[in-house]
Structure formats: C-alpha cells, structure tokens
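Supplementary notes for students who missed Thursday's class. We covered one full example, reproduced here. Read the sequence, then the structure, then the short commentary at the end.
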Amino acid sequence: MNNLLTLLSSDPGFRNYGFSVVQFRKQGDNDLAFRILEAGHCSATVSNLKSGKVLVAQLAAYKEFLRAKVDKYGVQAFTAERFMTRGVNGPSIEMVNFMLGVMVSSFDKPVKLWPAVTWKNAVRRKGVDLSYWYKWCKASPHQLDATLIGIYTGYRAYGFNDFGNLDLEDRMPSIIERLESVSLEPLVNRKLRKGE
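Structure (token representation):
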C-alpha cells in the first residue's frame, strides 16, 4: 500500500446520496493520519428506469460526477455502502445498483462495497452511537455515513482491523467539525451539541 491513499466514499441512494473524499497518509507501522477533503450530496443520480434515453443520460451524468472527483483529487479507489434489500423498496435498489455498476466498471480503480452492518458494527465496537452523532452533526447523516465508510475503508486498506487504534468516539467531534467545514451543502442548525 502506498503512503498516500485518496478514497471517494459513498452512501448511495437515488434521492439522498452522500459522498466524502478522504485522504490517508501512513505514519510509521501502526498509525494513519487522515483528512476529509470534501463532502456533499451527489445530485446526478439515477431516478428513472422507465425511459432508456433518460437512464443513459442519468448514468452519463453520474459517471461525470465521479470523474470530476477523480480528476480534482486524484482519487485512487472507491468505496460505498452496498444497497441491500430491507423490506419493499420498489425500484430504488435497481437504481442504486446501476450507479454502483458504473462505479465498479468505469475507472479501472479498486472498489470496495460494504454491507451497512459491517461498517456500522465496527463503529459500534468503537463505542460510537451514530443516532446521537446524527443529531449533533450539522451536515446530513448521509455525508457523515459516507465519511465514516471512507475512514473505515482506509484503515482496512492499510491492514488494520476495524478502525485500528483510532479512538473514534474521542475523534467524532473533530471529524464532524471538519466534515461541516468542507461540506458543499448548506448546514442544518440542530439543537443538540455535545454536553448539552
């Protein structure tokens, strides 16, 4: 693994699609430093399966969204949450999986897809209650999820179990502050702040 790794991480959905660009730098044998470079929502999603012409145009726009991030940040790999069946979701699973197919097949870069339970259980094992931090974060939950998926993937890519020696609970305020500062989306003033 290189000393520097830049990931484009996604929490995909056809209505709410959060993304985060996270860069890692290896520091010695047992430590990683990471930086959140940008986060936001992808508006170029697949949302219509009824028209082949519309689908082709939407897939092209989504591919261009990915390409723009690759070009801007030198993205070396992609990671995303797999969109799996949880009850009746209509065509949403198909639409997200079309987008994941573009991600996997278009850039000749490594792609790692995680079931939600995999990365969320790793977060829980670090003592983090996501429901609390969603209320604390002024960026959307989808952006926070994308960021945590990216951090989890970076640690795994460098051979660490879960988040390695990262004290995730302790770092959550600084992760969220950085996420809020680089988010391309308007922030939401939430009522809850740590200690309140």
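Commentary. The mean pLDDT is 93. The radius of gyration is 17 Å. If anything here is unclear, bring it to office hours.
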